Amino acid sequence: MSSFSDTDAWALSGDRDFAHWDGRDWHTFPAPEGASKIEAMTAVGPSDVWAVGRRGAPPAGKNFVTRIQHWDGVSWSIIPSPDIRGRYAALWGVAAFAPDDAWAVGCDGHAALVEHWDGESWSRVTVPVPGAGIHSLLNAISGRSSRDIWAIGTYENPTPTPNSLFALHYDGVAWRAVPMDQVADHTDGLYASPWSVVAVGANDAWMVGYTIGTGQRGGTLTEHWDGERWRIVPSPFDDPSSTPTSSGSLFKVTARAPNDVWAGGSTYTVDDDHPTGRNGALLLHWDGVRWTQDTTAPTTGDRNGISGISTTLGGHVIWATNRGDPELLRHS
Hints:
27 strands; four-stranded antiparallel beta sheet
C-alpha cells in the first residue's frame, strides 16, 4: 500500500483491484482489463499513482512478465513497459518523485532490473551489480528525494555460498553499488531475503526482511544506513534458536520520523494450543534507540501477517494491510 497524506492512501482490494482512502471512507476502483498481480505502489499526488508487478505470459503457468499501471485521478490504466524477454521478469518496487520522475526495480529473469519514467515513457537503465553475474534482483526502492534514492536486493554466489545482500544508491546523476552487512554464518548456508526499504534522511535509511537456512526457521532482519555504511541492527525474533517455538519475518517498513519507524511482517508459533503452527501479525517499532514489538493490533484468528504498511514523514496515520482478520489496520 502507499500513503500520500493522512487523507490520501491506496491499498489493494482483493487480488487486483484498488481501494482508496479519501480521509473519510475507503472506495474501490477496478483495475483495467488485463491487469496483473500488484507487488508495490507509490503516490506522487492525488492524481498521480503508480502500481507495478507482473502478469502471466506464455507458456501458461510457467512464465510472467513486468506490468505497470497508473492512476490519473479518474481511472487506472496500463502503461507500456520495456519489452523484457527473460522468463519470470517482474517488478517488485516503485518510487516516484514528480510527474516526470519515477523508478521501478525488479528482475529481468536473470539480472537486477531498473526502469525509469521520464514523463513520456518507461525505459531500462543500466546499473552496477556486484557479484559473479550468476543471478541478481532488486526487491524494493525508496527515496528521500530524486537525488537520494536507495534500492536493495541480492546477488547469487557460486555454490555452496548463499546469496549476498547489496544496495544501490542514486545521487541524481548515477547509480552506484553500496556494500551491505551480511548475516552471521552466511558462508554456512544462512541466507538473507530483503523485502522493503525506507529512506528517512541523508544519513538514515532502513532495510527489513528475514533470514533463513536449511532446516532453520526464519528470523527477522533489520539493517540501517547511517551515512557511512549499512549495519545489521538487533530486532525481536532475529535469532530463531533463542525462541525454539517462534520465528519471525518482516515484509514492509515505513517511517513518520527518524525515531518513529514501523516494520510489519508475521510470526510463526508452535505450541500446545497450535501444534501445527499459527501465523500472527508482527509489528515492530523503532524509537531511535531500539526495535520493540507492538502487540496492540486487534487481529483475530491464526492466519495473520502484515503484507503492507505505509505512512508519510511527519504524518499521523499509519495504515497496514493484514492477510487475516481484519484485513486493514489503522494506527494514529
